What we know:
The chain is an alpha/beta fold. About 30% of the residues lie in helices and about 15% in strands. The protein contains 4 helices and 3 strands, in the order H-E-H-E-H-E-H. It has a 3-stranded parallel β-sheet with strand order 1-2-3. Helix 2 links the parallel strand 1 (about 10-15) and strand 2.
Amino acid sequence: MDRNIAWADVFIAYITPTAFKSEKMNTDISNAHKAGKRIVGVWNSTDCRIPTALDEYGDALVPLDDDKLVIDAINGLDVWVKPNGEDAYRQIPRYKGR
Length: 98
């Protein structure tokens, strides 16, 4: 595991238009999850897609230009917000019984 991930209390994924396609981004997010880190995605712009691993393991997703919301998310607020400030409803995986 990357020593920076091991060192950090919170993993911040900077979401850019190319992050969705980044294998390294998904690997780093997965490694942060395995290490038990809080994972916060921060939107760079409105034309971005959420990386698969962030959708699966992320604790929060907030727009970069909302300083208070970014700090709240880092400090433990579980919130998903679109870059325009609207709620970004996240599909929660459900347990499927027998």
